[in-house]
Amino acid sequence: VERLGELLSSVPERIEISNISAKADQTKEVTFVLGSQSGYEFSTDYEAVVPFKFGKNLRLTYNETDNGWDTEDFDKYNFSQVSLSATVINSSPLTLNPVVDALDKDGNVIPNVTATVSGVIAGGSLEAPSKTPIKVILRSTGKNISNLAGVSVNFEATIDPAHVGECLNENQSVRFDDINASITGGISVDLN
Question: How far is 97 from 43, CA to CA, in rounded Å?
Answer without folding.
Answer: 47
